[in-house]
C-alpha cells in the first residue's frame, strides 16, 4: 500500500509538472532577467560607456521585437514589444544602479510576476474556445494575409460551414478574399473547390466564407429513373447532387410568380468529363414530363441516346437533317409566339399546354372560350453542336437563342469547347444557363462568368479525371450555389432497360406537337418532320396526318373529284397503246434532253428529294443526276436560282444551299 501511495503521489506530481511545463518559460525569463541585472551591476556598475551601450541595446531589442511581430496579430505584437521594453529597461537600470537601488527591487518583485502571468493567461485563452474567433479563425486569416479581417458567428450545417467575414475598412476588399481562397484551402488541408466566397452584393468588404469539409461527390451514384414521372416541365429537373448532399436541379420554363425567366442551356466539357451522362440526366428528366416535346439533333447517330429515341418528337442525325431542323425552329418561333399572344400568355406556362377552355385565355373576339388545343413546351437540343456550327456558321443559333424563350422554346447546346472561334459572342451571351464540366484550365472563362470563377469555381482543376463533376449557373438557383460543385448521376448498362421503358411511356403518355408547331415545322421540313408516333400507329408525315384529319371531318358531299364524275367505274379499261410502257424522259446514252424536258426532270428531282425528306439541296447533290442526264452543274445552279424566284426554294444561311419549300405549302 505505501508503494501504491508513492506511485499515486508520483503520478500526481508528474501530471502537475506536465501541465505546468508550457507555462514555465515566462517565469524562467523573469528569473533570468533578475540574474542578468545582478551580474551586469557587478560587471558594469561604474562604467558610463556600458550605460550607453545597454540603453542602445535596449532600444534596438525593442524595435527588433516590434518588427519581427509584423506577421502576427496586432495584440500579440504589442504584448511582445511591451514585455521586451520593460525587461530591457529594468536590466539597464539594475546594471547601472544595482538591482536593489531605489524602487528597482519592488518593481522587479511586483512587475515580474505580472508580466509572466499575462503570458500564462494568453496561453490559456489560446487553448480554450474563443467565441469571437480571435485565436482560431483569426489565426487562420492571419496565415493567409487577412489579419485585419474579422469572422462573425459561423453557421454550421451538415457538411457545410458558412462564416460571415468583415474585412478591414479601406484596407481590404472582397477581391483579396477571392485571391486567398487557395491559401485558405491549403491551411485547412482541403481541395480548392471545397472553399468558396460569396460577396454581399451591396458591400465590397463583406461576404460569406463557405467551407465544405467532406467531398460527398466522391461516391458514384447511378441513375435509377426520373425524379418526377408525369410531372410538368415547369417543375425542377433533378440531374445530380451538390457536394453537401443537396439536390442539383435546373428549370427550363420561366415562372412569372417566382420572377424566374425561361432559359437556354449550354452544356460544356472536355473529352471524358462526363458530358454524355450529364446530357442523359437532363434528357431523361425532360422526357418524363407530360407537357413537353423534344427535337433532338445528334451527329453521332444517337450513339448514347438510342434507347430514348422513340420518345423524341423529332430526331435528326446531323448534316442536312440538322439544317432542316434549324430552319424549322426558326419558322416555329413566330408561329408559337403569335399563338401565345393571341391567347393572352406573356410567356409559356403549364396552362398553355392544356386545352384552352378559359375565357381568360381565348383567341375569340367575343371573349368566349375558344377551345383551342394546348401548346406543349418545346426543347430543341443540338448535341455535339460544334459539328453543326462548322456546317452552318458560328451564328447558326443566334436568332433562335435571342427569340425562342418568348415562344415557349428552350435551346440546349452541347459541345466540348464554347470558344469564340466556334460560337458567336451573341449566341453565347444569349445562353443564360451553363452546365460546366471538367475542362482545360484555359477554357474556364468560356464556360463560367468571371464572378463565379472569382468565388472559387475551378472546373479546370478536374479536367477529365472526375467525370460528372460540374458547376451549374441557371435562373432559379441561388447565386451562392453557383461556385458549389455538383455531380451528375452515372448511366451504366443497367440503365438501358429503364430508358427504353421511359421512351415507351413518353410515346403513350407524353405530349404531342400542337397543330401550330406541327404545321409550321411541316411547312419547312415537309416529310422530314413526322412527329412522334405511338407504338401502335404507323409513322407518316405530319402534314399528311393533318390532311387525313381534315378528310375525316368531311362526312358529306361526293367522294370523287368532279372532273372524274363521268367515268363509269364498271367499264373495262382501254387496251394498251404502243409506247404506254416506255419510261417518261428515259435518258439514252449520249442523249441530252431538250430545255423543256430538262426542266421537267429538274422538277421531278426536287419532288424526289422532298419525298425522301432531304429538304436542303445544292449543286453537289445533283452530281450523279447531272451525269445521268448529260447536264452541267452551272445549268443546275441556274435552275436552283430560278426555282427560288418561283417560290419552290428558299436560300439558307449557307452559300450555295437551298431549302425546298414543300409542295403543299407552295400551293
TrEMBL record:
InterPro entries: FtsK/SpoIIIE/SftA (IPR050206), FtsK_dom (IPR002543), P-loop_NTPase (IPR027417). Residues 245-446 form the FtsK domain. The keyword Nucleotide-binding applies. ATP binds at residues 269-276. Residues 529-596 are annotated as: Disordered. SUPFAM superfamilies: P-loop containing nucleoside triphosphate hydrolases. Residues 570-581 have a biased composition (Acidic residues). GO terms for molecular function: ATP binding; DNA binding. The keyword ATP-binding applies. The chain crosses the membrane at residues 48-69, 81-101. Keywords: ATP-binding, Membrane, Nucleotide-binding, Transmembrane, Transmembrane helix. PANTHER family: DNA TRANSLOCASE FTSK, SPORULATION PROTEIN RELATED. This is Sporulation protein SsgA.
Amino acid at each position: 500500500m505505501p508503494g501504491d501511495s508513492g506511485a499515486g503521489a508520483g503520478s500526481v506530481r508528474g501530471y502537475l509538472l506536465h501541465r505546468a511545463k508550457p507555462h514555465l518559460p515566462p517565469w524562467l525569463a523573469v528569473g533570468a532577467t533578475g540574474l542578468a541585472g545582478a551580474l551586469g551591476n557587478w560587471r558594469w556598475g561604474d562604467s558610463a560607456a556600458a550605460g550607453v551601450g545597454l540603453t542602445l541595446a535596449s532600444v534596438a531589442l525593442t524595435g527588433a521585437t516590434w518588427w519581427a511581430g509584423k506577421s502576427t496579430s496586432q495584440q500579440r505584437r504589442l504584448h511582445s514589444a511591451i514585455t521586451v521594453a520593460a525587461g530591457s529597461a529594468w536590466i539597464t537600470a539594475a546594471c547601472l544602479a544595482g538591482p536593489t537601488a531605489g524602487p528597482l527591487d519592488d518593481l522587479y518583485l511586483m512587475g515580474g510576476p505580472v508580466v509572466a502571468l499575462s503570458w500564462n493567461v494568453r496561453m490559456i485563452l489560446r487553448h480554450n474556445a474563443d467565441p469571437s474567433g480571435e485565436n482560431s479563425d483569426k489565426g487562420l486569416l492571419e496565415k493567409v494575409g487577412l489579419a485585419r479581417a474579422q469572422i462573425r458567428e459561423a453557421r454550421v450545417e451538415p457538411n457545410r460551414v458558412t462564416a460571415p467575414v468583415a474585412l478591414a475598412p479601406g484596407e481590404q476588399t472582397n477581391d483579396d478574399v477571392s485571391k486567398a481562397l487557395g491559401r485558405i484551402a491549403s491551411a485547412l488541408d482541403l481541395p480548392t473547390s471545397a472553399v468558396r466566397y460569396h460577396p454581399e452584393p451591396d458591400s465590397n468588404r463583406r461576404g460569406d466564407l463557405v467551407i465544405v469539409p467532406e467531398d460527398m461527390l466522391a461516391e458514384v451514384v447511378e441513375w435509377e429513373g426520373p425524379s418526377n414521372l408525369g410531372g410538368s416541365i415547369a417543375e425542377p429537373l433533378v440531374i445530380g447532387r451538390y457536394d453537401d448532399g443537396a439536390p442539383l436541379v435546373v428549370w427550363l420554363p420561366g415562372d412569372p410568380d417566382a420572377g424566374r425567366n425561361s432559359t437556354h442551356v449550354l452544356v460544356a466539357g472536355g473529352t471524358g468529363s462526363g458530358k454524355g451522362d450529364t446530357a442523359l440526366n437532363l434528357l431523361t428528366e425532360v422526357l418524363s414530363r407530360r407537357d413537353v416535346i423534344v427535337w433532338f439533333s445528334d451527329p453521332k447517330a444517337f450513339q448514347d441516346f438510342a434507347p430514348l429515341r422513340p420518345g423524341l418528337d423529332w430526331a435528326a442525325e446531323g448534316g442536312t437533317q440538322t439544317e432542316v431542323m434549324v430552319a424549322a425552329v426558326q419558322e416555329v418561333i413566330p408561329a408559337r409566339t403569335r399563338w401565345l399572344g393571341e391567347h393572352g400568355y406573356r410567356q409559356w406556362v403549364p396552362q398553355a399546354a392544356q386545352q384552352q377552355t378559359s375565357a381568360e385565355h381565348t383567341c375569340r373576339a367575343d371573349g368566349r372560350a375558344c377551345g383551342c388545343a394546348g401548346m406543349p413546351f418545346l426543347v430543341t437540343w443540338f448535341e455535339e453542336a460544334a459539328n453543326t456550327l462548322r456546317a452552318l456558321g458560328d451564328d447558326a443559333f443566334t436568332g433562335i437563342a435571342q427569340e425562342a424563350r418568348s415562344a415557349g422554346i428552350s435551346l440546349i447546346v452541347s459541345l466540348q469547347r464554347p470558344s469564340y472561334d466556334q460560337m458567336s459572342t451573341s449566341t453565347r451571351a444569349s445562353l443564360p444557363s451553363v452546365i460546366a464540366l471538367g475542362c482545360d484550365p484555359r477554357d474556364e472563362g468560356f464556360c463560367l462568368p468571371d464572378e463565379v470563377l472569382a468565388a472559387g469555381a475551378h472546373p479546370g482543376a478536374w479536367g477529365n479525371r472526375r467525370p460528372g463533376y460540374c458547376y451549374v449557373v441557371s435562373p432559379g438557383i441561388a447565386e451562392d450555389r453557383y461556385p458549389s460543385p455538383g455531380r451528375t448521376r452515372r448511366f451504366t448498362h443497367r440503365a438501358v432497360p429503364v430508358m427504353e421503358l421511359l421512351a415507351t411511356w413518353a410515346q403513350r403518355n407524353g405530349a404531342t406537337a400542337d397543330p401550330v408547331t406541327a404545321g409550321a415545322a411541316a411547312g419547312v421540313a415537309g416529310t422530314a418532320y413526322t412527329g412522334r408516333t405511338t407504338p401502335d400507329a404507323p409513322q407518316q408525315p405530319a402534314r399528311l396526318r393533318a390532311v387525313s384529319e381534315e378528310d375525316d371531318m368531311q362526312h358529306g358531299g361526293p367522294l370523287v373529284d368532279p372532273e372524274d364524275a363521268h367515268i363509269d367505274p364498271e367499264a373495262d379499261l382501254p387496251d394498251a397503246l404502243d409506247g404506254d410502257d416506255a419510261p417518261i424522259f428515259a435518258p439514252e446514252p449520249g442523249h441530252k434532253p431538250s430545255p423543256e424536258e430538262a426542266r421537267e426532270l429538274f422538277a421531278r428531282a426536287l419532288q424526289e428529294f422532298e419525298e425522301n425528306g432531304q429538304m436542303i439541296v445544292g449543286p453537289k447533290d445533283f452530281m450523279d443526276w447531272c451525269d445521268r442526264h448529260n447536264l452541267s452543274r452551272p445549268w443546275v445552279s441556274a435552275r436552283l436560282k430560278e426555282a427560288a424566284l418561283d417560290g419552290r426554294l428558299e436560300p439558307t444561311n449557307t452559300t450555295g444551299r437551298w431549302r425546298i419549300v414543300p409542295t403543299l405549302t407552295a400551293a
